[in-house]
Amino acid sequence: MSSSKSTNHVLTAQRPSDMDGRKPKMPDTDTSDSQSKPSIHHGDGWLILLYLLLLVFSIGLVTLGMVGFGDEQANPVVLGLGFVAVILVASLYPIASALHTLLAAQQEDADRRHRMIELFSSINDRMLLSDAAKRIAYRAQDREALRQAIREDIDKQDYAAALALLDEMSQSYGYEHEAEEFRKEIEQASDASAAIMVNKALAELDAVLGQRRWDEAAHLASRIQRQFPRSQRVATLDKHVVDAREQYKLNLERRFLEANQRDDVELAMSLLKEMDRYLTPKEAEPFREIARGVISKKRQNLGVQFKLAIQDKEWSTALKAGLEIVQEFPNTKFADEVQDMMPLLRERAANESEQVASTDD
What we know:
Low-confidence stretches: 1-41
Number of strands: 0
Strand content: under 5%
Mean pLDDT: 76
Structural class: mainly alpha
């Protein structure tokens, strides 16, 4: 029991690679197989003994062939066999010894490879154990480092990176509840940041609408909708632009009618020009008769103003009225008559300006 507690304490207190300042102890290689098998030299001894016996037997045949056996005389056949045996034994021994040495070396290499495989397998098991021990020992530190990294990404408004770290927290470390809490916080922070950006974009859109740049406003509304697809506030921006233009057109029509009713010809004429950019021929039909009346009054007023200025010899005023008649009513007979008088009016207006300048001096 005490040994188990001591081992657990070591795992939670230190990294396995740093225990006692030493590297992990390598496993002892198993030499029992090599000790139990005959060595190369031991095998050579048996081979030498075998060939010595064969050599003795061969020499015995030679001796028997030379001196005979018992009463028999020398036997050439036995003598020849003896010499052949001696030659064979003497010539085959080096070959047999070399083959035996080669087989023994191959067996030793096989044993060495087997021992190395066992050694590497043992080292790999120890390394896996070390990784597991490190994961257990530094679990709290890793968790805190992950929290800090997520917090930094939230502060930098890098919400995509923070969400990626949340997947690491929940899948690799199993902190699903904490990851879900962080996810809610990220969604709230993202929504708050997006709300500020949406407010800024809507203010820009309102400014463009206020300047009645309708085409630019339509493009800006589409861009805002693409940029903030989750925001409900921008879902109908395109309709908002169309409605704003339509409302402005209705206001023009109302102001034109009111100006005509007050007999404010100048304002009515100005509004009529602007309405011409908004109304289709079908929409303009109800205002056609009123528009003719306003145009007729405007032409009459300009004619009266022009004639009175000439009678009073107010050449600058007459020149200004004449230019307006030519610009506003270019296809009328009255405009042609005024156009013929323009060179004289310009000359007299210039003289008038010079007289006023000399008088001031």
